[in-house]
Design goal:
Elements: H1 14-21, E1 28-35, E2 45-53, E3 56-61, E4 74-77, E5 81-85, E6 107-111, E7 130-135, E8 138-142, E9 145-146, E10 169-172, E11 178-182, E12 187-192, E13 195-206, E14 209-214, E15 219-225, E16 228-231, E17 234-238
Parallel strand pairs: 1-4, 1-5
Antiparallel strand pairs: 1-2, 2-3, 5-6, 6-7, 7-8, 8-9, 10-11, 10-17, 11-12, 12-13, 13-14, 14-15, 15-16, 16-17
């Protein structure tokens, strides 16, 4: 199967960052992103611009970039991103914000590809795809971090494990088909049938909840209730 996910990464250079820290009332232009307006009359665009003046959206659609120089806009590259209302609610559209000219400029810009430098594989903190957040016409997040920090590095915040935690040990379902061992070093090893180590990764226990980060990259969870571990439709008993 062909992977058609866009891999374009928007430019995030220091010159634009300096302008955003001292905008001096200049209009902001989010350009080149896939724009989801939330307004059925306007529709959406695969590639378009959103123009912000003060605290309001003043224009939406393709072609606004052509006036960037004339109007002294601060141009923000949004290629490879999804631009949509910060308060999007697809289950109840009446409660959702829209990218409609004249409405408040509350906008979220989501990357469709990982930011440069994002660690490969399964790590606890991979960074966020919320790239830019605009509220009341002001950029609050840039590169996924507060504007005054503009940091991009994801950190692997490895917790300290309790090697004597009462839940450490072997857990198995009633048929002994799935056997999940919670190791004292904070890793788990799950066997399935005659497949040893079908899944392996890290786990964190907080109260009665357990979170898993598998080495394949996916997250899952379980709950300890009445001396049983409930996880992914299975009920495990301590062995």
């Amino acid at each position: 199967m062909t992977n058609n996910t866009p891999t374009t990464v928007p430019r995030r250079d220091d010159a634009v960052l300096r302008e955003l820290r001292n905008p001096q009332g200049r209009p902001l232009l989010l350009t080149g992103g896939t724009v989801i307006t939330g307004n059925p009359l306007m529709g959406d665009w695969q590639e378009a611009d959103v123009l912000i003046g003060g605290s309001l959206i003043v224009g939406v659609g393709p072609g606004l970039l052509t006036a960037a120089g004339d109007d002294n806009m601060i141009v923000i590259d949004c290629a490879g991103t999804l631009v949509l209302p910060a308060t999007a609610d697809f289950t109840e559209p009446a409660k959702s914000g829209t990218l409609t000219p004249g409405e408040a400029a509350d906008i979220a810009v989501l990357r469709l590809a990982d930011a440069p430098g994002t660690p490969a594989g399964a790590v606890p903190a991979r960074g966020t795809h919320l790239d830019i957040l605009v509220t009341e016409g002001q950029v609050r997040l840039w590169n996924g971090s507060p504007l005054d920090k503009a940091a991009t590095a994801a950190t692997d915040e490895a917790p300290v494990y309790d090697q004597t935690h009462p839940y450490v040990g072997m857990w198995a379902d009633e048929n002994d088909f799935v056997r999940q061992e919670l190791l004292p070093d904070g890793r788990y090893d799950e066997a399935r049938g005659d497949r040893p180590s079908a899944y392996q990764g890290r786990y964190w226990i907080n109260g009665t909840r357990i979170d898993y980060l598998d080495d394949l990259g996916f997250w899952a969870f379980g709950e300890f209730q009445d001396d049983h571990l409930h996880h992914a439709g299975y009920r495990f008993t301590r062995r």
